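quick one before i forget lol
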Amino acid sequence: MNKTYKNIVEEFKSLATRHKMVNSFNSGDIYDINFDDENKKPIYPYVHLVPQPSQMLENELLFTFNLIVMDLVDTEFANHYDIQSDTIRIAQDIIYEFKGQNQVEQILDPTPISIFTERFNDEVSGCNATITLSVPQEISICENPFE
């Protein structure tokens, strides 16, 4: 059976929520990161998986995601370098764990990582890892939904 987009997002959610340093996970558009609503505010450290344009090849799908890991900056202590270092480690842990448990799909190298500090309603810092995932697709005339 072919892996679906939903399966992949669920795998990343499972990995992120099992990580001992991550307190919340969400996926979707970057605008789904909701810093305005106190009831929906993420609990930090926070992981957000953002789908990017992907590619359909003859026998595989190449899914691309931005894996964003962020935490609150303590403005009194200006700890953004510590946060950036920690969030890079969290991203590495999630990516390496995904690579280690999956025999079918694979994360393609290299995985670019950029660091950031942003001011929303919360001042956050972290990293953004751009992941391209190769997922083989079995194409079968027998399974074709056309008559």
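fyi Residues 62 and 134 are 5 Å apart (CA to CA).
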